[in-house]
Design goal:
Subcellular location: Cell membrane
Oligomer: single chain
CATH architecture: Orthogonal Bundle
Radius of gyration: 21 Å
Order of helices and strands: HHHHHHHHHHHHH
Distance between the termini: 22 Å
Strand content: under 5%
Largest sheet: none
Keywords: Cell membrane, Membrane, Transmembrane, Transmembrane helix, Transport
Helix content: over 70%
CATH superfamily: ABC transporter involved in vitamin B12 uptake, BtuC
Family: Belongs to the binding-protein-dependent transport system permease family. FecCD subfamily.
Number of helices: 13
Transmembrane segments: 12-32, 70-87, 99-118, 125-147, 153-172, 203-224, 244-273, 285-303, 315-334
Structural class: mainly alpha
Protein name: ABC transporter permease
Number of domains: 1
Shape: globular
C-alpha cells in the first residue's frame, strides 16, 4: 500500500481526467438510443452555434434528463465518499460510514413524515420531501451529538449514541408508516436510493452545501493527520482536537444530509471509495479526503449508468447496485482489519 501523505498534482490530474471521462460517457450513452456520435455532434453544435442533429425531444433528453442526472450523481457520490473519508479520519476507524451518526435514520423519518402526513403541495421552490430528509438527517446527527455529550463525550460514546439514535428513529419511522400502509411502497423506493427524479433543481440544491462542506473537509485534512498522532501530541502542536473533530463532523454531516435529501439512502459509497483511494494513492488524509470526493463522483456516475442501462427500459435502484459492490467489499475490509478495529 502506498504511504504517500501529500497529494501530488499528477494524481489529482489523473483523477480529474477519469471523472471527466466518466461524465462524458454517461452523458453520451443511455437507455434512449440516440447514438453517441449524434449526441457528441449535439454538444458541439451547442458550443459552436451549429445545427443540431437531434430533434427537440431528443435534445431535451440530453440536456434536461441525462446531464443533470449525471452531474447530480457525481455530486452525491462526492458528498458521500468525502464524508466517509472524513468520518474514518476523525474516528480512526476504517469501517466508519456517513450514515454512522443517525443521518440515514433521520432522513428516512423526515421523508416518511412527508409521504404519510403532508398533503399534496404545489408551488414549492424545492419539494417538501428533500427538505424534510435534509432536516431529518441533520436532526439525527444533532441528537446523536447531544446524547454523546450528555453521556460524557468521547469517540466510543459518540458511536454508541449513533447506534441508539438510529434504532430509535427507525422505530419511529416504522410506526409512522403504519398510519398509512398505502405509502409503504413509495417510502421503500425512496430508501433504496436513486437519481431517477433528478433535474437541474436538485443539482442546484445540493451544490452549495457540497462546496462548503468540501472546502472545510479538504482544509481540515492536514489537521486529521495531526490528530492521528494522538490528542496529546496534537495539542502540543497547537491543535485543539475537540474543536477539529466538531468542525469535521459538522461538515461531513452537512454533506451527507444534502446528498440524502436528493437521492435517498445510497449505502457503501463512503466505505468503498476511501479504501480504494488508500490502496491506490496513499494513506494520508491530505491524499484520501480530496481524492475520495473525486473517486466518489466517478463511482456513483458509473453505478448509476449501470442502474439505468443494464435492464433498460426498466431501471434498477441505485442503492441495489452500490450494495452489490459494497457488501462484499465491506466483508473483505472487515476480514483485513481483524484484530485492528476496536
Amino acid at each position: 500500500m502506498p504511504t504517500r501523505t501529500r497529494l501530488s498534482p499528477g494524481a489529482l490530474a489523473v483523477a480529474l481526467l477519469v471523472l471527466l471521462a466518466a461524465v462524458a460517457v454517461a452523458t453520451l450513452l443511455g437507455a434512449a438510443e440516440l447514438g453517441w456520435t449524434r449526441v457528441l455532434r449535439e454538444v458541439w453544435a451547442q458550443l459552436t452555434g451549429g445545427v443540431s442533429p437531434l430533434s427537440e425531444r431528443e435534445a431535451a433528453i440530453v440536456w434536461q434528463v441525462r446531464l443533470p442526472r449525471v452531474l447530480l450523481g457525481a455530486l452525491v457520490g462526492a458528498a458521500l465518499a468525502g464524508a466517509g473519508a472524513a468520518y474514518q479520519g476523525v474516528f480512526g476507524n476504517p469501517l466508519a460510514d456517513p450514515y454512522l451518526l443517525g443521518a440515514a435514520a433521520g432522513a428516512g423519518l423526515g421523508a416518511t413524515l412527508v409521504v404519510v402526513l403532508a398533503p399534496t403541495t404545489t408551488g414549492w421552490v424545492v419539494g417538501p420531501l428533500p427538505l424534510a430528509a435534509f432536516a431529518g438527517a441533520l436532526g439525527g446527527v444533532g441528537l446523536t451529538w447531544a446524547l454523546s455529550r450528555a453521556a460524557g463525550g468521547g469517540t466510543a460514546v459518540l458511536l454508541l449514541a449513533g447506534v441508539a439514535v438510529a434504532a430509535f428513529l427507525t422505530a419511529v419511522q416504522t410506526s409512522v408508516q403504519q398510519l398509512d400502509t398505502d405509502t409503504v411502497r413509495q417510502v421503500y423506493t425512496w430508501m433504496l436510493g436513486g437519481l431517477n427524479a433528478s433535474g437541474w433543481r436538485e443539482v442546484l440544491l445540493v451544490l452549495p452545501y457540497l462546496v462548503v462542506a468540501g472546502l472545510v473537509l479538504c482544509l481540515c485534512a492536514r489537521l486529521l493527520d495531526v490528530l492521528a498522532l494522538g490528542d496529546e501530541e496534537a495539542a502540543s502542536l497547537g491543535v485543539r482536537p475537540g474543536r477539529v473533530r466538531l468542525v469535521v463532523l459538522l461538515a461531513a454531516s452537512l454533506a451527507t444530509a444534502a446528498a440524502v435529501a436528493v437521492s435517498g439512502l445510497i449505502g457503501f459509497v463512503g466505505l468503498v471509495v476511501p479504501h480504494l483511494v488508500r490502496l491506490l494513492a496513499g494513506s494520508g488524509n491530505r491524499v484520501v479526503v480530496p481524492l475520495s470526493f473525486i473517486g466518489g463522483a466517478v463511482f456513483l456516475v458509473v453505478a448509476d449508468q449501470v442502474a439505468r442501462t443494464v435492464v433498460a427500459p426498466a431501471e434498477l435502484p441505485l442503492g441495489v447496485i452500490t450494495a452489490f459492490t459494497g457488501a462484499p467489499f465491506f466483508a473483505f475490509v472487515l476480514r483485513a482489519q481483524r484484530g485492528r478495529v476496536r
